[in-house]
Design goal:
The chain is built from 7 helices and 2 strands; from the N terminus they run H-H-H-H-H-H-E-E-H. It is mostly helical. The chain has a single domain, classed as A middle domain of Talin 1, CATH 1.20.1420.
């Protein structure tokens, strides 16, 4: 287990990668981990699902149960546009996509907008925003 002293020495991508790895190793207890660790976990988890199948996949896989936490995480790091689009997607009925062309088109529209914004948008680059957030909160990373 790393100590806060070791975390203090990490910068940029090293810190981000450490926190993401730490979070995924403790995925089963994610709600008990610190807010910085949860933030990194929820954003990284969203990114994986989004790039593998769009926001619909994110919402319909097990990751979707953390939609609210993911929205809060994007807001916390300053990616407000992404948080807003993700919030709009939670108002759609993900189950209708297979049966309803209008629902599918709505998800596709959100995906298209997210692809334009992710990872870089007028709020900044999500990876850089998350790295900065972790650097600013590094003393809290190993707290629960």
């Amino acid at each position: 287990m790393s100590t806060n002293f070791e975390i203090e020495r990490l910068e940029g991508d090293e810190l981000l990668n450490f926190v993401v790895e730490y979070a995924f190793k403790r995925e089963s207890e994610i709600n008990d981990l610190s807010l910085p660790v949860q933030t990194a976990y929820f954003i990284s988890n969203f990114e994986t699902e989004f790039y593998n199948g769009g926001v619909h996949q994110f919402l319909t896989n097990s990751s979707g149960r953390f939609a609210d936490e993911t929205i809060q995480s994007f807001t916390r790091v300053g990616a407000k546009q992404i948080a807003s689009l993700l919030e709009a997607s939670t108002n759609l009925d993900a189950e209708l996509v297979l049966e309803d062309d209008k629902a599918a088109a709505s998800f596709q529209e959100i995906d298209d907008k997210l692809h334009q914004l992710y990872p870089s948008n007028e709020d900044g680059n999500v990876g850089e925003q998350l790295s900065l957030y972790l650097q600013e909160n590094r003393s809290n990373i190993l707290e629960s």
